[in-house]
Structures are given as structure tokens and as C-alpha cells.
Amino acid sequence: MENLYHCLRCNYCVEMRWEERGIQHVCPTLLHHNPAPGYSGKGYLAAARALLEGEELPINSLIERFFNCTTCGNCEEVCPVGLRPAHLVRRIRAAMVEQGLAPAPIAARAGNVIEHHNAAGAPIETRNNWAASVEGVAADAATLYLPGCAASCEAPAEARATVSVLHQAGWPVKLLPAERARCCGAPLEEIGYPAEAGAERRELAEAIEHSGCSRVVLSGAECLASLTGTQFVGGVEVLHAFDLIERAVADDRIGFTPKANGAPGPVGVLDSCHLSKPSHGVSGAAHYPRRIRALLERLGCQTVAAADQGSYAVCCGAAGGMPQMSPQSAARMADGKLRSFAGAGAVVVIAASPLCVAHLRRSGVRDVPAVMGIFEFIESYFHLRPIA
Ligand code: SF4
Ligand code: SF4
Question: Which CATH number characterizes residue 42's domain?
């Protein structure tokens, strides 16, 4: 109710520009799907208000609108009164799903997770196929590595590189048996299936507890939000793989030297929504953009300033069911990001979220920077050396 009746109609979520903060646009849906204000944070609030007040609205157009938001939360970042349109979108989606109104591609995505326990719909027994020839997996390791659905099924090179770098840094990892490696629930939560998301998350939490490990290391940014935000995993440290490597570098446990091929020229950093926008619930999310660039600079890499970055970065279109609901709009979102990095002079774009990496690679854009996961990048261009 607070959200519905406190909108100032200031239009920040529609057309905010604030050069000093790197804000040129806010909403990827307005930019690349439909510029009508009904598709903005303000528009979603107004539609929900009208529904609550019993106004008759055309249901098909409402469904199309509510399922074409990436749930990135950028409108929440810029809202001067702290309203939560992205949270509201998830709630309205859940109500629509409950009434059997889920669009077919959204229902199919939900079905993938419910039946196969991963968003790609890959058979569960293939979940650990990415690890077939990776060194650094040990059944008695104290650290559990959960790559998440995106790295396991769509960006396996990032999962392999992560295990390899952690192994070289002195942390062998254990994996969950394929049949227990469930989804964290994030893909279901964002498309309106909260109860099913909770069931997945509970099963994953039980598998984590059963593993006996004292630490869980993740690749998925949305998995980090899902597992740390809900306190499902008590007594076990949960962190992103980047956190662990950053800590080892800061403690002078490890160092990096460039490989013979040398680090590539200017690097663009894609700030994934879950690792930059506090509204997704990851502790210290707003600091990841600075920390990731600081690590790259310590490795001797030059990073480029993109048109939008940090907590206000415009979403690449990977999440919220956007690639399933409107694949062409989602591809335009990815295209827009990559062209912006190319314009800033980047020759490679890296992201700490495998979901974004897989989406950018799928976008089909040509003549733009190469896309790599952050560990894939480190492994490709640097030798890791333990410091005595
Ligand atoms: S959550 Fe993102 S895509 Fe959805 S309305 Fe807000 S800014 Fe636009
Ligand atoms: S930024 Fe917030 S207050 Fe301003 S129009 Fe958007 S939702 Fe309303």
C-alpha cells in the first residue's frame, strides 16, 4: 500500500539523467522493449493501484506489461522515496500465475526448474558434466562450490576456471552430487513462482547442510542473493568466488603474473544487477563494482568507464524472464551494453555473473568486445603464484 500511494510522479524512473552519477537511462524495458511510461516503475505502480481500486483493465495487455520487466531494480535505485516497483512486479506476477495467467514461455521456464531443477531444463544427471576433467575437486574438501544453473549449464568455462583458480590458490572444492544440485530458486522467484522457489531453495539448503562443508562458494550472483538474503543456510559461510580470491590477494596469500600472451587491452566491467544494486539483498552489493575494478587494476589491467556503471548500471536483459518472454528485446538490451563498452574502447567485457555472460554471448552481436566470466579472464591471462 505504501508503494501504491506514495509515488511522487517525479519521473526519475522514466527519464532520469544525472551525468555525475553516470545515469543516462534507467529502465532497459523502456529503452529496448516499449518506450510507453506504462512499462516503467511508475507505470507498474499505477497499474497495481488501478487493479486494487477495482478498475477494469485489459488483462492481456497487463500480462504483457508485467512480464516484460527485467526486475533489475534500477527504478528502485533512483526512486527518491524508496519505492519498490520491481518487488511489486514480482508480487503481481505471482498473483497472475496463481490465477493461471502465466504466459507460455514463462510457464515453460518455471517447468524447467520444477522438473529438472535448473533454469536451462538440462537433465539433472548432467548437472556436473562441466567438471569432467577439472583439477581441484576433492570429496573431503571443506569448501563446497555451487556454480549455479547458469555456470553449470550455459557458461561452463566460467565454472571450470573458477575451480581451477581456487585450486591454485589452495582451496580444493567439493561438489554436490548432480541429483542434489538444485536451483537456488531465484529464476522462479522473479517470474512469479515464490512457493516453488522456496521448495527448491529448501532442498538446496538441505544438500548444503548434508555436505558437511563449512563454507559455500558461489558463481551465480542471483544465487548469492537467494542464499544469503533468506538465511536458509545457518552456520555456513556463503560467499561469491570473487570474495574469496579478493581476500587471498589482500592477505598476500596469492599473487598474479601475466601469461606470455599478456593481459588484453582495455577491459569493460559489466556490473551485474545482483552485485551492484542493494535492492537485491546481497550484503555490500554497492561495493562490488569498485572492488572488482580494484582487483583488475591490481592485476595491471586498464578498465574503461562505461556510459552507465555501478549501482545505476542499466540491466543487460538476462534476468526476470526477459529472454524467454521477449527474446528480441532482451537481445537488444545485450547489444546496447556491448556497443556501449565498444564505444568506450573495451576489447573485452567481463562479468562476475555467469547469467549475464551467457546472455551477452547469446545476443548475436558482431564486431563488439569479447565476453568472459571474471575467472575465465583471470585464468586465460594470468599465472597464479602462492606467496610464501
Ligand atoms: S525493474 Fe528494471 S526493467 Fe523493471 S521497471 Fe524497473 S528499471 Fe524497468
Ligand atoms: S522514481 Fe519513484 S516516486 Fe518518482 S515516479 Fe518513479 S516510482 Fe514514483
Answer: 1.10.1060.10
| 373 beta partners | 351
Q: Are residues 80 and 155 in the same domain?
A: no
User: Which residues make Cβ contacts (< 8 Å) with residue 146, sequence separation at least 6?
Assistant: 176, 181, 184, 204, 208, 216, 217, 218, 219, 220, 223
Residue 261 corresponds to which cell in the numbers above?
Answer: 600472451
Q: Does residue 280 share a domain with residue 203?
A: no
> What is the reported pTM?
0.94
Task: Give the tens place of pLDDT for each residue, 267-278.
Answer: 999 999 999 999
Q: Are 59 and 101 in contact (CB under 8 A)?
A: yes
Interval 127-149 mean pLDDT: 95
Q: Is the CB of 6 under 6 A from ligand 2?
A: no
**Backbone phi, psi, residue 127, to 5°:** -55, -35
As a whole number, mean pLDDT of residues 155-167 equals 96
For every residue of 147-198, DSSP letters joined together read -HHIIIII-HHHHHHHHHHHHHTT--EE---GGG----SHHHHHTT-HHHHH
Closest listed ligand to the CA of 83: 2
Tell which atom from ligand 2 comes closest to the C-alpha of 45: 7
Helix H or strand E segment including 70? none
* Number of the ligand 1 atom closest to the C-alpha atom of 70: 3
Which of 202, 223, 247 marks a domain boundary? Answer: 247
Nearest residue (CA) to ligand 2, atom 2:
79
132 and 230 share a domain? yes
Distance from residue 314's CA to the centre of ligand 1 (Å) = 9
The domain in which residue 137 lies consists of 117-247
134 and 35 belong to one structural domain: no
The three three-digit cell numbers of residue 210, written as one number: 548434508
Pocket-testing residue among 6, 7, 312, ligand 2, by greatest number of atoms within 8 A of Cβ: 7
